[in-house]
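Appendix B, Record 12. Input sequence as logged:
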Amino acid sequence: MSVPKIAFICVNFNNYSYTKKLCDSLVRQSGRDSQFSIDCIVVDNSTDEEDSLALSEFSEKHSWIKHLHASENLGYFGGLNYGLKNAALDIYRYVVIGNNDLTYESSFCQELCRANYGRNIYAVCPDVITEDGIHQNPHNLVQIGLLRRFQFDLFFSHYLLAKIILFILRLIRPVKNSLLQPSTGCEIHMGVGACYVLTTEFFKKFKKLDYPHFLYAEEAYLTNQIHTAGGILWFDPDLRVHHAESASLSKIPKRTAYEFGKSSYWGCRHFLLSKKTDLN
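Logged structural output:
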């Protein structure tokens, strides 16, 4: 009897060392090959030829790793879509998409195979933990309100105003706190964009991620895509992932990153407050 297959798709941008750590964590998955099998698709957005060559040489040593070199930097969700396009999606029970600066706990795939998610669950959001111990999920347990959207409006109205807001926040909140985290699995409004598990129910509706920008606000677009189709996002605290955080984004100049974020925010602002489809 064949074991279920799980695909991992990530995007590499001039930081092969992180991708190697991710793949090493997949090698250490308990029950691998006996309880499930793993394929890993790495989409390479790199502009550094040496980094890309190192990734290519590493991938060639492992038949379960597929290295896809993009002809240009496709961005984060753009890169993931390139990976999805080149994956045989119908052979996988789950497709895990995310950053390459992640490492998966050795029980991740076992817990995933044990889970029995409902047919309305299109994406599962793991417990994503940063190096300083911050739990990043649920990104939003419920929809944001008018006040929160107004704060975003101010932040993305002008770069200098955004810098002032960030300066004030660092003064009044010098240490980041973990988000309010349920102790058991539950429906959430939005998961952090670093990692999602896409279910077969997602792929009955979609073949790609609905995202029209280069970077940022990916969470909002995926949430809207899933809710519009009548699905939900589910937080599963038994799936634990460690996140080095911003390994690729730290390479982008701050002003450039702000402009990417500004464009993406104003593109999705109109549906941030829209009512979720009634599933009852």
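Residues 276-280 have pLDDT under 50 and may be disordered.
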